[in-house]
Amino acid sequence: MIVLDPASSLPPFEQLRTQIVDDIAAGHLVAGTRLPTVRRLAEDLGIAPGTVARAYRELETAGFVETRGRHGTFVSAQGDPALRQAQQAAREFAAQMHVLHIDPEQALALAAAALQGLR
């Protein structure tokens, strides 16, 4: 169930996007699940349809959902989108380390330190 917090510093579209990503990651929304229509979800949440449409567009761009025209929006069946994004980020990191002439061991140490800083 999606709940938007009007007091949050995150805009409603981002709260919606984040909750859908979390539901996919947790297995509450599995591949092939049809999401509510933009109008229906906007009505249910008491927000503008454009807000839901923006969240859906960003989810589709990131690979979490796919739109099938008039048939609706569905959770993507093309693997784990979060893992795909992580792999892309890793490739970009590796390319940047190469450009900077940072050896792999040092690059891994930098990445590990950055991840530790997030805890």
From TrEMBL:
- What's an example of a GO molecular-function annotation for this chain? DNA binding
Arranged from A to Z, the UniProt key words for this protein are: DNA-binding, Transcription, Transcription regulation
Q: What is this protein called?
A: GntR family transcriptional regulator
Q: Which domain of life is it from?
A: Bacteria
A Pfam family of the record is GntR
Keyword Chaperone included in the entry's annotation: no
Residues forming the HTH gntR-type domain are 10-78
In the UniProt record, does the keyword Membrane occur?
no
InterPro entries, sorted: Tscrpt_reg_HTH_GntR, WH-like_DNA-bd_sf, WH_DNA-bd_sf
Kindly give the CDD domains that the UniProt entry links to this protein: WHTH_GntR
